[in-house]
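[Archive record]
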Amino acid sequence: MKFARKLLKSQTTTGLRSAFRQLREEWRLCRRHRKTVKRVPLFLRGSGPLKLNLGCGPNPKPGWINIDLWHPAADLHLDLREPWPFPDDRMSHVYSEHVFEHFAFRNEVPRFLAECKRVLCPGGVFNVGVPDSEWPIRAYGNPGNDYWRLARDGWHPDWCETQLDHINYHFRQDGEHKYAWDAETLTRSLLKAGFTSVARREFDPDLDAESRRLGTLYMRAIKPAN
């Protein structure tokens, strides 16, 4: 095995090996997604409106369809970059907390929002929470700002030493985050996607995870009624 690894390393480049690892991971995601799609009809029984909790992680919501690609608490393990296997106008609510920032702005975000609007009933509500990027930007250059204390006390890994280290991690999270959001930018994207009544909102303890209260930008948008 060691000989095989050594031979492979000698005959390939770092970039090619990285591409192979990414291809292997995408193949795993594809298989998991396709397997889960077959189970979706079990959650669509009845005729009433449903509610989607996207990227639930360890925070599933009772009475909702909880979706997460890997977390075992989820009802369905779906890749939300793909077309969603739900009918039009079926959901009264769609909720997304600390998931939206994981989608690429130019291609994945428009598809995500289009699918969200498609599955919502007319007048349905989309609630979204993302890391608030305005806070660290305003804190930059002010070492006494609470942001730096919180980032150093557990939000960010130990390798973050300078203020710019912390901002890079906030925006990128080792490559997992694809875009940074503030209220103005998120409002623009939601309006372009066809939502109305787009507004920033306060933390809602009946809806949002307490662990996300600090540092999260929450917004609400409505699918037009006609």
Q: What stands out?
A: The CA atoms of residues 58 and 73 lie 6 Å apart.
